[in-house]
Design goal:
This protein has seven helices and 15 strands. The chain binds D-MYO-inositol-1-phosphate and calcium ion (CA).
Length: 253
């Protein structure tokens, strides 16, 4: 189903893609295609699983009568999609009783589909994924992202500016789901971000965990809007402690 939505998004992307509505700020573009992809996924899923709950970025939450909840980001990396940069994905996570059990992140313009099943592993195009070996922070390539609101960005800029001299380099690719997949695939040493939502993380967090990453917030808390940190165990601690030292644990960061 993620693949079908992804194909639709590639094939039907209008050349003059317009901005349908704006959410929290003008930078947060929600395109007509976001809404169309979510409606398609919702229809496909609920046709087969009418009792399940559904949470989607664009359409909000539906409660269900089963223990299953689908957590969907129809386009993660909306700004990339808008500009026709290939780094965007369709993210579909499945939870049972609130525990992630399966996830797919489909990135059709990259030709990559990431999948994971709880306690069974994660894959990219069928090839098993494994995180990089742990490394010290000075040699770590760290992915991150920024929220849409300018006050948050200002603070995020200060933290990332202070982290930059302490790491190998920083990447801001524009899709939180793919950032988590990059940790899983060993393409970066770690990822952190404040302000992500369940639909950004649901599938990608399972994919990273199943590849051997720790995916948490600060001080052993679950990953949440407050913070998601993903890295192999040794790197995780180094990144976690550096971010705390730099003030990223403060409530107003
Ligand atoms: C955004 C992307 C981005 C991240 C933002 C997200 P969207 O999702 O994942 O990389 O930095 O926090 O909101 O708006 O493209 O679905
Ligand atoms: Ca998203």
């Amino acid at each position: 189903m993620a693949g079908e939505a992804a194909r639709m998004l590639v094939e039907r992307r209008p050349a003059d893609l317009g901005v349908a509505i704006t959410k929290s700020s003008p930078t947060d573009v929600v395109t007509e295609m976001d809404t169309a992809a979510e409606q398609l996924l919702r229809k496909m899923i609920l046709e087969q699983r009418p009792d399940d709950a559904f949470l989607g970025e664009e359409g909000g939450a539906n409660s269900g009568r089963s223990t299953v909840r689908w957590v969907i980001d129809p386009i993660d990396g909306t700004v990339n999609y808008l500009y026709d940069l290939p780094h965007w994905s369709v993210s579909v996570g499945v939870e049972v009783d609130g525990v992630a059990v399966a996830g797919v992140v489909a990135a059709p313009r990259l030709g990559e589909t990431y999948t994971a099943v709880r306690d069974a592993g994660s894959w990219c195009n069928g090839v098993r994924l494994r995180v990089r070996p742990p490394t010290d922070l000075g040699r770590a390539l760290i992915a991150t992202g920024f929220g849409y609101r300018s006050e948050r960005r200002e603070r995020q800029g200060v933290i990332v500016g202070a982290l930059l001299p302490r790491v190998r380099d920083i990447r801001r690719a524009g899709s939180a789901a793919l950032d988590l997949c990059a940790v899983a695939a060993g393409r970066v040493d770690g990822y952190y971000e404040r302000g992500t939502h369940d639909w950004d993380r649901s599938a990608g967090a399972l994919i990273a965990t199943e590849a051997g990453a720790i995916v948490q917030g600060f001080h052993g808390q679950s990953a949440s809007e407050a913070m998601v940190l993903a890295a192999p165990p040794g790197t995780f601690t180094a990144l976690h402690d550096a971010l705390i030292e730099l003030g990223a644990g403060a409530p107003d960061y």
